[in-house]
Amino acid sequence: MSAFNAIGEEREIDRDEFTPGVEPQPTWCPGCGDFGVLKSLKQALPEVGKTPEEVLTVTGIGCSGKLNSYLDTYGFHTIHGRSLPVARAAKLANPDLEVVAAGGDGDGYGIGGNHFIHTARENHDMTYIVFNNEIFGLTKGQTSPTSPKGHKSKTQPSGSAKTPIRPLSQSLTAGASYIARTAAVNPNQAKEIIAEAIEHDGFAHVDFLTQCPTWNKDARQYVPYIDVQESDDYEFDVTDRAEAAEMMRETEDVLNEGTVLTGRYYVDEDRPSYTEEKAAVGELPDEPLAERYFDDDAEWERSYDLLERHT
Amino acid sequence: MSDDELIWRIAGGSGDGIDSTSQNFAKALMRSGLDVFTHRHYPSRIRGGHTYVEIRAADREVQSRGDGYNFLLSLGDSFARNPQEEAYYGNEEIKPLSENLDDLREGGIIVYDEGLISEEDVEAIDLHDRAEENDWHVFPMDLRGLAREHGREVMRNTAGVGVTAALLDMDLEHIEDLMSDAMGGDVLEANLEILHEAYETTREEYEFEHDLRAPEGSHDAEQALLSGSNAIAYGAIDAGCRFIAGYPMTPWTDVFTILTQNFPDMGGVSEQVEDEIAAAALAVGASHAGVKAMSGSSGGGFALMSEPLGLAEMTETPVVLVESMRAGPSTGMPTKPEQADLEHVLYTSQGDSQRVVFAPGTIEEAYEQTRLAFDIAWDYQIPAIVIYDQKLSGENTNVDVDFFDREVSPDLGSTLTEDELREAAHDNSGKFKRFNYDDAENGVAPRSIPGQKGGRFLATGNEHSPVGHISEDPDNRVAQMDRRLEKLESIRRELDEERESTQTYFGDETADYGVITWGSSQGAVAEAIERLNENGHSVRGLSVSDMTPFPEKEVTEFLESVDEAMVVEMNATAQFRGLLQKELGRFGEKLTSLLKYNGNPFEPAEIVEGYQVNLAEEDREPTAQVRIEPAAGD
Ligand SMILES: Cc1ncc(C[n+]2csc(CCOP(=O)(O)OP(=O)(O)O)c2C)c(N)n1
Ligand code: SF4
């Protein structure tokens, strides 16, 4: 696999290519699960044949949002909860870009929940990694939408009265065409799933369990996981919506009771991605829109005289 | 008040086809060589409710709706009747007649639909007595019956136009042409029959004892009839904008719709998304990926865009947002104009936040300043906002077709090519110094677009180093902040020195008094000044378009040249006057305000009166629904 370096020379790429120089060093706490996501992404990207210039990583705000600070691709570190709308537009503007969006559970399932539902519904061709540590990390340990019921924090001192959201089920209902859960404690599975998610044509949602040793020592993310595909106890067809839904329901029930199940939950290779749907109804140009601005021969039409109908 | 003009008002219920009928009639007048200006009044209601459109036409420039009107075509509100129950809601049916009479000028003409409005109704509102008092000429016509006979009831609008043409002694040619452009087959035939029969019947039935005639037009250059929303949308298209994201909100929806409908044919992309935060964030994302992009909204929706706006600024992602004002706060009056979001647009978003804001006052300015907003945004990598209002958005005026250059400008401003990126500065790890402050010119550090070779960088809303790493280093912070702040100064310099002024002046340069305004109040102010000067006053006017960076030099010169000045704007808290004083730091004792915020735009007569009370110091309160704010210290 080859790529171009900063000054346009061709050279072999490997995961180092996605690592910036000495600076900046991650500011994550020792033992933070976020390191696991960074690592699996660095491994997956060269594996799926992407060069750093072809990749745009878009992140939200939180410890998780710093992902692309430590990754040498084109990056956009946006605002809290808004990575998906930025990522969607970049993909529509230039479908050739490999777009990976990422952020925390507060970022993605809380403040950005509306965007999450709509991005899944539209099935934008991108990977969305949610660092699920069941806590607000960066703002110092408040209860998040995935914190279990009864979870105590400075903002829920008597224990949360809220049932945690079910990100996998929600994603399925909304329309994502690839849904998986993996965990930082299992780097091999994580890398595989991330690579698969990137290659998937459609909205690939990966709920990535990341431990937060600083604020959430009780979370299940440290517990050894069970791979649902490899265990005989959990047989189901990942291409079958109903079976996937049932498995997700079961999983989401037991997660907070102590059993951590990970793996692929739903894969729909047939559902067209949003760019395909949009092109089919005639609302997306054949060539990437962004390229036209660099193409001296591009025909810039008003296409017909707009004034005619007003004279 | 001039008699050389026609101000035709068509009134009826929302949903009764008032809009399309008036649009065509305005075009017919324009094609006959006249200048036209349309004003639309409608309630926030889908069907029924009193609505009207006014068309002012004259053989000279018309810049505002004028004062009152001289021809009423009252169609009746067909939706005031509940079709299921055949019941009437109060006297709404009569409203298109009764609600409109106050503004009808002496000697004016009334045509009403006697098929819908009965003689009893007419008596109930004393029409005959009032007509005699005001020398009105009343023509009851069975428009509905006529329409029914030849086609369908809805075609009574056409019958109304036929009667109008007959009473004003107009040629039917342009009206017929427009009808055949818009429809065909049986529908066209039926409409033409109705038009002719209404025309002939009127001529046969009535002797015209009134003097009103359609003025003779003398335009020779081809004209286009455009609304402010059209002008903004076409300005964006010609500026090379090919991406728009939005969420519907009146009145911004018009611009959004026009672009959405045109984009498929010209290879653009439009997205209707889940909310305004998303909309603005999409515009930022598309721009980051290398497309000229825009979004926009009205007050409440724009409030949601505050954060993405700041993100665009900090990441130096060019973007154009439009803000179409309506009366607020909150949902306010959705279909009524106001100029009360100025401070919102200038100051929203946290930090020492900077953006460019243009407030066009006319259709031509709306087109030009939208283009300018794109140019500036992409050259300087800064968000630019076009602020306008429901009035400018909906009013139609004719513009010389030659005014539009129709050249699309796809220039991405300060964006490097891959060849240029090869020469550009990189850090040790090979990252492009996209936010370099060492040799930035005018505050601008050239950018790269994702996908380009050798251009990798991180864009972030956090403070960042030259390659985009998050940084809280004090020296870096000051260097980056200063560089970003320099942009606005450089833009001001460019606007002052290299571009034509976007401010508009009226009246006599040696005048003693000034009237200063902004945005869509411009037309009414211009006309008021003309009238005042004709009547022996000494007034000059300035309409400011650049809200920020503020044209300090120009406005200072203007204010120094007059003894006193009245600031005219459609809001209750004198927001623009506040901006003047903030930017100029003086003139407090020279400035008074004339404010209007009742949901209707200024009419020239109100400004004339405001001037007389305010500056000519007539000792009385103004009679119109306006408010006067004295000078500081008064
Ligand atoms: C609009 C807005 N609200 C609040 C914040 C403060 N904030 C920053 S990160 C964060 C939550 C982080 O939690 P999560 O998304 O789960 O990410 P983590 O830090 O755990 O990776 C919050 C509330 C903000 N930056 N912007
Ligand atoms: S606070 Fe938690 S999530 Fe944030 S870096 Fe530390 S361990 Fe990771």
Write a concise keyword list for the protein shown above:
heterodimer, A: alpha/beta, Rossmann fold, eight-stranded mixed sheet, two-stranded antiparallel ribbon, 9 helices, globular, disordered N terminus, B: alpha/beta, Pyruvate-ferredoxin Oxidoreductase, domain 3, 4 domains, seven-stranded mixed sheet, 22 helices, binds thiamine diphosphate, binds iron/sulfur cluster
Secondary-structure topology with pairs:
The complex is a heterodimer of chains A (311) and B (634).
Chain A: E1 2-4, E2 10-12, H1 34-47, E3 55-59, E4 74-77, H2 83-93, E5 98-104, H3 105-111, H4 113-122, E6 126-132, H5 167-174, E7 178-183, H6 187-199, E8 203-209, E9 226-227, H7 241-255, E10 261-267, H8 274-280, H9 289-292
Parallel strand pairs in A: 3-4, 3-5, 5-6, 6-8, 7-8, 9-10
Antiparallel strand pairs in A: 1-2, 7-10
Helix pairs in contact in A: 1-6, 3-4, 4-5, 5-7
Chain B: E1 5-13, H1 18-31, E2 35-41, E3 50-58, E4 69-74, E5 81-82, E6 87-88, H2 95-98, E7 104-113, H3 119-124, H4 127-134, E8 137-141, H5 143-150, H6 156-167, H7 173-182, H8 185-205, E9 223-227, H9 228-238, E10 243-246, H10 253-266, E11 269-272, H11 276-288, E12 293-297, H12 299-304, H13 306-314, E13 319-325, H14 342-347, E14 356-358, H15 363-380, E15 383-389, H16 390-394, E16 396-400, H17 418-423, E17 458-460, H18 474-497, E18 504-507, E19 513-518, H19 522-534, E20 539-544, E21 546-548, H20 552-561, E22 564-569, H21 575-584, E23 591-595, H22 604-614, E24 627-629
Parallel strand pairs in B: 1-4, 4-7, 7-8, 10-11, 10-12, 12-13, 13-15, 14-15, 19-20, 19-22, 22-23
Antiparallel strand pairs in B: 1-3, 2-3, 5-6, 9-16, 14-21, 18-20, 23-24
Helix pairs in contact in B: 1-7, 5-6, 5-8, 6-8, 9-10, 9-15, 11-13, 19-22
The structure holds thiamine diphosphate (TPP) and iron/sulfur cluster.
Iron/sulfur cluster is lined by residues 28-29, 32, 34, 63, 133, 137-138, 212-215 of chain A.
